[in-house]
Amino acid sequence: MVKTESRRPGRRSISSSPAGAVTGRLRRRRPPSSSPRPPGLTARQRAAIWVRRHRLAPYLLLIPATAVIAWLILWPAAQIGLFSFQDYGLMQIIGAQPTQWIGLGNYSQILHDPEFWLSLRITVLFSLVVVPLTLTVGTLVGLLLSRLGRKMATFVSTSALLAWGTPAVSASVIFAWLTDPDGGIVDWSLSKLPSWLGGGPHWAEFSWQNSALPAYTVLTALLVWMGFPFIAVTVLAGLRTIPAELHEAARIDGAGPWRSFWTITFPLLRPVFMVLLMLSIIWDFGVFTQAFVITAAPGNRDEFNLGLYEYFKAFTQPPAYGMASAIAFILTLILLIITVGYVRASVKQGEVR
Amino acid sequence: MTTAPAPLAARRARRPGTAGKRARRALLNLAGLLVALVTLFPVLWMISTAFKPPTELFSLTPHPIPLHPTLDNFRHVIDGTGVTDSSNNPIPYWTFLRNSLFVTIVAVAVSSLLALLAAIALARFKFRFRTTYLIMLLIVQMLPQQALVIALYIDFRSLNLLDSLTGLIAVYTAFALPVTIWMLRSFAASVPKELEEAAAIDGAGAWTVFWRILFPLVTPGLVATSVFAFIFAYNEFVFALTFLGVDTPRFTLPLFVQFFQGHSTSGTDWGAIMAASTLFTIPVLAFFLIIQRRLASGLVAGAVKG
After folding, report:
1. I need a surface site. Which of A12, A279, B106, B212 has the fewest CB within 10 A?
2. Do the interacting molecules here have an ipTM over 0.90?
C-alpha cells in the first residue's frame, strides 16, 4: 500500500503522502541543515519536480516519436489534401509561378478521365480476386499445419516464412523471370502440358506483361504467394486457442471437417478473420511495389492500378502534383474507410488497451 | 510400434479406421510437401538461375539444377558492369550494399530509441489521449506510402534532402515508428511493475530504474522489433525510387535490383538479375530463419506490413 503510494509520480505523493516527504521537503526549500544539498535547487531538480507535479512524464516521452511521425507522416497526409485543391505542377515546384487554389478542379478533371475509372476498376477487381484467394489459401495452409506432425509442420511453416520474408522487389523480379516469354519456366511448362489441361504450344513465348489480364494474373499469383504465410501463421495461432474437445465432440456427433470448420472454427476465430480480412484489403488495394515492377516497367497505361496511376501522374513529365494529390487523397480516403473497420476489429479484439 | 510382427500389423490394418488413418496421414504429409515445394520453388529457382550460364537460361529444356554452374553472374553483379554512374563508370555491388546498410542501421537505431521512449509512456503511464494515441498509430500505419510520397517529395525538394541518404533515413525512421512502438509497448507492458517498484524503494531514481531494470528486460523485445524495422528499411522501394531518381551511386539494394531489370542495355540479363536478387534476398531470409520463433509470436502480437 505505502509502497505503491511512495513511488507513484504525481501531485498527490509530493504534497500529502508521508512517504513523499523527501521530495516535499525539497519543494518547500527547507534549510540545508536537514539535507546535504546546497540551498536552493538546481535547474534540473526544479524541472524534474515540475514534470512530476504536472504528470508530464508520458507526454515528454512521447514528444520525440510524435514529432517525427507528425513531420513525416501526418503533415504530408494533410498536404496531400491541400495540394489536391491547388494547381500544382512544374511551374509551381520550380517557383516560377505561385500555386493557385482551383477548388474542385483537379477532382472534376480526374472524374472525367477514363484512365482513372479504368485504374479504379482494375484495383477493385484485383482486390476482389486476391483478398479471398489469399485468405482461403492461407486458412487452408493454417488448417493443414495444425494437422501435420511436428517435423512436417516445421518444414512447411519454414518454407512459408521464407516466402513471406522475400523482399517485395526480389519477389517481383523472380515472378517476372518465371513468366518471361523467352526463358520463363511458366511458359515452358504450359507449352508442355497436354491440351486437355489447357496447355499447348501456343503458350510458348506467351507474353504476360503486354496486357492487363495476364499481368494481373501474375500479380495475383505473386501476392497470394507473398501473403498467404501471414494468414496461415495467424490462423494457426488462433487454432491453438480452440480447445481440442470442441472439434472432438463435433466429430463424435458426426460432423465432417467442412461442417466443423463453419460451426466451430470460423465463429470462434471470427475476430481474427475480420482483422486479417481488413489487413488484406488494405494491402492488396494499395499494392504498389509489386505492381510497379510487374506491370509498369513497360509503362502500359491501361495496366495501371490506382496507386500507379497516381504515381505516374506526379512523377512523369509534365508533373501534375495537384491532380496526383487528388488521386492520392481519394486512395487514402478509401483506405481510411477500410482502416476504420480494422481499428474497430482491433479494439474489439482487445488489442488497444 | 512400427516394428510390430506381421500378424499383429495385419490385425491392426483390419481394425476399422486404422488403415484409413494411415492413408489420411500420408495424404496430409503429401499435401504438406506439395505446399512447401510450391512455396519454396520461386526462391530456389532464383538461386538456381543465378548460377546458370547464359546458354542454360534460354535452353529448350530448363533444368532445376544448373548443368554447368558458374559464378559469372555474381562476378558481373559485384564488379558492377550492369549499373553505371553519370560518367559511365561501373558501380560495384559494395556501394549499394553500403548505402543500404548505412540507411537501414541509422534509421533502425533512431527509430528504436524513439519507439522505446514512446512505448514506455504507453505501457507504464495512464494519461489522457492514450487510447487516441494508440488508434492514431494503427491508422498511420495504414496510410498509403505512394500517396504520401508526393508531399514528401515536394517538401524534401525545398529542404534539399532529395538525392541524399539523409532524407531516406528520416523517412524510414518515421515509417518504422508506428509498428515498432506498437510492438515494443506489449514487450514493455509484460515487464512486471513490481521489479521497478522494488528498485524505487531501494532508492533508485527514475533514470536508474529505467537503465538498470526496465531496459535490460525490454532488450529482447527491442531486438525483435528492430528486426522488423530493419527488414522494412532494407526492403523499402517507393521512397528510394522517388527520392534518388537516377542518382545511381546513392542507390539502395532494392533500386539496384530493379534498375538491373528496367535498364539493361542488351536485353534482360536474367542471370545477373537473379544473382543481384540472390545477394539482396539471402541475408534477409537468413535473418528470418534465425529469429523464426520470435517472429511467429511477433506476427500475431502486432499487425506487420509485409
Report:
1. A12
2. no
